[in-house]
Amino acid sequence: MTVPGSKSETTGKPAVSGKKTHTSHAIAVIGNPNTGKSTLFNALAGMNAQVGNYPGVTVEKKVGRFRFQGREIQLIDLPGTYSLSPRTADEMVSVRVLLGTQKKAEPIDGVICIVDATNLDRNLYLFSQILDLGIPAILVLNMWDEVLKRDIAIDVQELENRLGVKVVPTSARKGIGLDKLKSEIVSLVENCSKADFIPPKLFPDSFREAKEQLQEEVEKRTGLPLPHFLAERLLLDVHGETEREVLKEDQSLNSFIANLRTELASKDCPIPAIEPRVRYQWVKQTLDGLVTKPEQVLKTKKDTLDQWLTHRFWGPVFFAAIMFLMFQAIYTWAGPLMDAIESLQEMSADFVMDLMAPGALRSLIIDGLIGGVGSVVVFLPQIAILFLFIAILEDCGYMSRAAYIMDRLMTRVGLSGKSFVPLMSSYACAIPGIMATRTIEDRKDRFVTILVAPLMSCSARLPVYLLMINAFIPNDSLFGTWIKTQAIVLFIFYILGAVVAVPIAWLLKKTWFKGEPAPFVMELPSFKLPSIRVVFDRVYDRSKAFVMRAGTLIFLTTVVVWAAGYFPGDHQKLDQVDAQLEGGTIEEGSPAEDQLQEQRRVLAASLLNESFLGRAGHAIEPVVRPLGWDWRIGVGVLASFPAREVIVGTLGTIYSLGGDVDEEDPQLRDRLKSARHSNGEPVFNIPVALSVMVFFALCAQCGATLMVMRRETNSWKWPIFSFTYMTTLAYLGALLTYQIGMLFIKG
Amino acid sequence: MSCGLSVIPVECLQRGERGTIVDISGDERTVHRLNEMGICCGCKITLKRNDSPILVNIDGRDLLLRCGQAAMILVSVGSTTQLI
Under an 8 A CB cutoff, do B84 and A299 touch? Predict the structure, then answer.
């Protein structure tokens, strides 16, 4: 049963017995947006979900597993959707997974459909489509706690009878009903087969006849059988994805389908209006007399809160306040944790120094590994705090309020509020941000959002900002003691990208992507307390991804930079001086030690100058000189084009190799402060630091983002365009910053 | 359009006023999409905020609609008017 290359084979987990299909069962998880689907998924599968991509499309493949009563169940999370009618290739993935025809997905044994129990009449629309698939299903009435709180009565037993499937009330947030759901899933895979699930007859006879005709015709012409569900979709979805795929096989089917549709319309079966008509009718019949709701309370506390948070004036004020609080928190909460990581870094450097004699390997470990990777990892606490804030805002429902507030602003540049959430997530990382643009139905809006998303200040820029700000911006207090200058500078850099994005988006909408603001409908989920589990899960996932990058890509780059800075060159003399310094024969603070230290500095600097890295650096120096940079910054920036956070590691390695090191204070920021040009002038001052920061704020230094952009736009044109415009902007921005900054210093 | 009821586009409702959707006009794909999201004839709809985009409540769910699209949604206002 297992498809080659499927998840079960690639997980590396040994199967309990030889035949995996007998011990592990795959269950798909589907549901409307805002029904608590991901919370339920995490509650069932725990933290160890594996995330990947389906080939050729941008849909995230998320697989989790749990064991219950000796059975291993694999859960396959599908994107939240209102309906199973595929309009795009991405939406087709869910249908394929359910039909068992998706590449890189195991055939499923059943599906659980999660609905908002307080809104059954709307949510059962999707469930009626699931029943049409004819696969074993369980209906999960999530948010059961809300049902109880609002005194809604639902006759679950009778609902089960009418639907012919198991109905399980749960509350994922409160952990209610999870074991019952697990045991129902196990008994579903044990006892049910597809034969038990016969789709209800919803559509009139004329429609069914037309569908059968279509199935025959397609099989006759293409030689491929068309499953019942896809035949239905092919007939119902005008210009849908099913139509596109079938017409790709045989263009002449177009007129055949069109004829069937016209014929149906004349039999009081208009396409596509017939679908909502029959489905909602079915929902109404199914629920008839089962749900009693008390008269709705007209104004709840949540409504009042909403009135304020989406208020024309107070809404934006509150939004700005939250953002500011976030940057303050990044500064004040992370301090102790960062100190701990830094001292760990120092301790391990000392440990290695004591253990090994001076030489190439020791230099690799101390300068390349500890100096490079360590200087990136140190920012983990601050990045985790940023992720924490974003996760809380997402989970409590505030993000969509922010989208509402921002819609007014976004329409001015020609976008809509829908672009806001992708852009906001780009503050964590442009990759999920660009992927989140899939919720924007209008193609032009989507492309413009993708093109400006990398300008949002992602978490990888944070280390660069923090390094420069910590080292060169005085930590004064403004307006009393609470607000710090450093936090304000960080705040400015965080909004810089967004500010620059405004004219760019406007220009793009005026030129390539002309058009009216897209029509849009968006649901505002009701406010809720953020779930600790969901928030923790997201912070953990994203932090892990950051550390993994530091551990692989950044590590490799720093090693390459280290090697280029270490070779070629005869390090014998330097090693001798080091050995003498550490030998313990020289008194600390004596003139002899000073002399040796000076000798060390000169030797190290000339070795670095002569290295491959030094030569390359001097070659590009004329280009970066107008920005106020020395060759070392230039090389660092060049090396950080694949991933911008690499700069911190490479600077760490370069300055460590260069011998600008006071051994007692091996932190990178102090190395930067003490860095000197050959004429003895400090390399860094405030304009140089700002110029570096502006460059990083605006430049497209992220290979992964460009790759995702190519995948999402399906063309190399847009990533190349982004790279060019952003790099040009970055250079000009840095140039202006430095030149204007210097006028202030000199003036 | 029965007597005594007036049929107006949804954004012409007063803030807090409730009506019943009687017609959704527009291209069939958009209407299909709106239907799938639970915006269909017979739904009770309350206007909560009349900036653009308008904020409406349909059967207990808050939805944002841009006026261009909302103009296609016609509602009848009868005696069920209530203020929130």
Answer: yes
- Nearest partner of A246 among A209, A211, A212, A218, judged by Cα: A218
- Where residue B32 sits, what CATH number does that domain have? 2.30.30.90
Residues on chain A touching B53 (C-beta within 8 angstroms): 404, 407, 417, 520, 522
In which element (H, E) is residue A70 found?
Answer: none
Predicted pLDDT of residue B80: 46
Is residue A126 predicted with pLDDT exceeding 70? Answer: yes
pLDDT at position A131: 92
- Of the two residues B1 and A422, the one the predictor is more confident about is A422
Q: A301 CB near a chain B CB, below 8 Å?
A: no
Q: B34 to chain A, minimum CA–CA distance in Å?
A: 8
Strand order in the sheet with B6-9: A521-524, B61-65, B54-58, B44-49, B18-24, B73-77, B6-9
Report residue A288's pLDDT band, with 50, 70 and 90 as the boundaries: very high
Contacts of B34 in chain A (CB under 8 A): 521
Number of domains within chain B: 1
B6 beta partners? B77
User: Does B11 map to a domain?
Assistant: yes
Please name each of the domains of chain A with its CATH number.
25-196 (3.40.50.300), 205-292 (no CATH), 569-604 (no CATH)
Residue B14 maps to a domain: yes
Alpha-carbon dihedral angle through residues A282, A286, A290, A291, given to the nearest 10 degrees: -30
Residues from chain A contacting residue B69 (CB–CB below 8 Å): 519-521
Q: Is residue B46 part of a domain?
A: yes
Chain B contact present for A35, CB below 8 A: no
A299 contacts chain B (CB < 8 A): yes
Q: Does B83 map to a domain?
A: no
* Inter-chain touch A298–B51, beta carbons under 8 Å: no
Question: Structure tokens of A698?
Answer: 């605006």
Give the domain range for residue B39.
5-78
Which phi and psi angles does A277 have, rounded to 5°?
-60, -55
Determine whether the interchain pair A280/B60 forms a contact, defined as Cβ–Cβ distance below 8 Å. no
Distance CA A89, CA A103 (A): 13
Q: Tell me, yes or no, if A194 comes closer than 8 A to chain B by beta carbon.
A: no
pLDDT at A23: 65
**A519 interaction partners in chain B (CB closer than 8 Å):** 30, 66, 68-69
Q: Which residues of A are annotated as a binding site for GTP?
A: 31-38, 56-60, 77-80, 142-145
Query: Is residue B30 predicted with pLDDT exceeding 90?
Result: no
**CB-based contact A310 B29, cutoff 8 Å:** no
A41-61 pLDDT tens trace: 888 887 677 766 666 665 667
A447-475 burial, b for 16+ CB within 10 Å, e for fewer?
Answer: bbbbbbbbbbbbbbbbbbbbbbbbbbbee
Answer for the pair A546, A538: CB distance below 8 angstroms, yes or no. Answer: no
Taking Cα atoms as reference points, which of A112, A128, A81 lies closest to residue A178?
A: A112
Cα separation, A239 vs A5, in Å, equals 32
Q: Which residues contact A552 (CB under 8 A, 6 or more apart)?
A: none
The candidate with the shortest Cα–Cα distance to A273, out of B6, B45, B41, B62, is B41
Percent of chain A with pLDDT over 90: 20
Tell me the sheet residues that pair with A116: A142
Yes or no, beta carbons of B82 and A298 under 8 Å apart: yes
CB-CB neighbors (< 8 A) of A91 in chain B:
none
Contact across the interface for B53 and A520, Cβ inside 8 Å: yes
> Which of A232, A281, A442, A521 is best to mutate for the B interface (most B CBs within 10 A)?
A521
Residue A493 pLDDT > 50: yes
Q: Per the CB < 8 Å rule, is B69 touching A521?
A: yes
> Taking a C-beta distance cutoff of 8 angstroms, is the pair A1, A21 a contact?
yes
